[in-house]
Amino acid sequence: MCGDAHAAEDLVQNTLIKVVLARRGRRKIDHIDAYARRTLVNTFIASQKRFWNRERPHGELPDTPERTADADLGMAVRQALLCLAPRQRAVLVLRFFEDQSVQATAELLAVSEGTVKSQTARGLAVLRATLGDVVGNVVDEELAEMRGVIR
Predict the structure, then answer these.
(1) CA-CA distance, 138 to 131, in Å (whole number)?
(2) Percentage of the chain with pLDDT > 90?
(3) I want to staple 48 with a disulfide (CB 3.0 to 4.6 A). Which of 61, 86, 103, 135 is the partner?
(4) Residue 73: CB partners within 8 Å, gap ≥ 6?
């Protein structure tokens, strides 16, 4: 979801703090895994709304070794995911990276199943448009497989 390992570590740490504090509180949490997953998603979406998070510092990039096509595709998909709105990104990550059903994704995000389907379609359209020029036919095949899963 984050697109950055360090941001992901921070997100997990913030989520764990929230879950531990909730467990210590007076509320009883019946399904701790579901609560933690939902807290993770909500924390991610809330962090994307903050103004300071919109700035992306950059400098000169170091020389990097040549990557294979699969690594290039993975990097291209990660970069394209960063172009999506936080909720669309969360839907696509939950649906395709975590292999959640439409119903489970809707429950985690507290939205209707129709919203999950529409956010999935819109997010895939943006990915298709973004990735079409980057890696060509390989992406079209991957997206065709994803579309088959959605339908």
Answers:
(1) 10
(2) 23
(3) 86
(4) 135, 138, 139, 142
- Average confidence (pLDDT) over 1-24: 87
Supply the pTM of this predicted model: 0.49
pLDDT band at 20 (very low <50, low <70, confident <90, very high): confident
- The full DSSP string for the chain is --SSHHHHHHHHHHHHHHHHHHHHSS---S-HHHHHHHHHHHHHHHHHTSGGGG-----PPPP-PPPPHHHHHHHHHHHHHHTS-HHHHHHHIIIIIS---HHHHHHHHTS-HHHHHHHHHHHHHHHHHHHHHHHTHHHHHHHHHHHHHH-
Q: Measure the CA angle with vertex 43, ends 40 and 46; round to 5°.
A: 150
Tokens representing 38? 């939902």
